[in-house]
Amino acid sequence: MIRLMKQSHLFTKTRREAPKDEVSKNAQLLIRAGFIHKEMAGIYSFLPLGLRTMNKIVGIIREEMNAIGGQELSLTALQDKHIWEKSGRWSDEVLDVWFKTTLKNGTELGLGTTHEEQLTNLMKDYIRSYRDLPAYAYQFQTKFRNETRAKSGIMRCREFLMKDLYSFSKNEAEHSAFYEKAKQAYVNVYKRVGIGDLTYITFSSGGTFSKYSHEFQTLTEAGEDMIYVHEGKKIAVNKEVLNDEVLKDLGISRADLIEKKAVEVGNIFNLGTKFSDALELVFKDVDGTNKPVIMGSYGIGPGRVMGTIAEICSDDKGLIWPESVAPFAVHLIALSNKKAVEGVEDQVKKVADEIYAKFVKRGVEILYDDRDATAGEKFSDSDLIGIPIRYVVSEKTIANGEVEMKDRKTGKVEMVNISDFK
RNA sequence: CGGAGCGUGGUGUAACGGCUAACAUUUCUGUUUUGGGAACAGAAGACUCCGGGUUCGAAUCCCGGCGCUCCGACCA
Questions:
Q1: Nearest nt (C1') to A373 (CA)?
Q2: CATH no. for residue A416?
Q3: Strand B: which residues 132-161 of A lie within 7 A (CB)?
Q4: Looking at this predicted complex, what is its ipTM?
């Protein structure tokens, strides 16, 4: 990733007002700051700043997935309908979010909404023996879902990036052990991207093979889900499964639960042998018998995570990125003095250029506002874009041999000696 | 997919069925200015979403389409 950028070269611009048909805070701020561009309802392009943040989120997820033994691959978006027919999910009645298309010769294809079928089928080429298990594969892939109603800015899109990991295990114990590791990895991800405090492991319906699945729900008014939070245990229950049995299982009482709105930023799911049965993914066990592989799926939408961060980490002036996902670590602003006459060096620009060069040399990701714009405009843009640390170089500061450092989140200002920049 | 609302320069808004579609912002030129989206002067930018209809006359009224937003349903 490119570490440095002069703002005069950045082709995107900020805007004072959000388009009137964007109501959600995440889309309003991200569009105004030049992170995303709306193409259609539920379909957004990612611009340079937005892509940088997206890649930061992706990078964190990748590290956590690698840490639990995930192996990254990339499956195709165009998918063969026959493997979907085997699981019974080709039908529009079963899966109503399909985008389907055809080849010139009439062959029907589907644009992947998810990849259980395809990966299960693929794994048949590689999983033969208990010695081949466990296996953990994941990808970052664009999913296509024909949502009847896209909404909430980038929170529910028709085309969106998703990290999906699938686990293949030889028995229930092996599966469960990995499932727990994955759960912890997810906790790590949300913590690292800056929304850990507001994110709850939420018990949700489990389907055929386990009593519960686990959603990761982040509290925000922009959310679509209603969950019941148990503050003491830092867990929650999805409204859909809240009943006496669940309360008993979790050892909690209804009185301790608080109803909150939340957005689902990830979920993990025990698939059991649903897909390995359907697509005949079996392995030869130690005793010589064929057994179906036990599977799990684990999903996170980096775009939705980004939208969630934008909802939570922002104020009336704009975005406030956590350091770990900010498009740049530092925003350097030069309030240069244009009065500088020909032949007389512009001291402010000179100092700012030097500081910029030092940051670049140190490998700090920096956006340098070298534009010919007024102070107010630069400050407003800086607040809107939301880079965590802002440095200002001006006549006033260099008169004392200093540079001003301001924390976007706390607003705390500190003067730093120019000679301290190494 | 049911319900509601809305489509006017790049963006945000205005305009009784009646003048050359107005204002702000934006962009460009020049002067001036540099610590919170400065000031002045000049300029650019619109078949008022599309297609029909009513009318002497439509941004405005009617019909159809498309698009967008919100509520609900849905969310492997």
A1: B34
A2: 3.40.50.800
A3: 143, 145, 147-153, 156
A4: 0.94
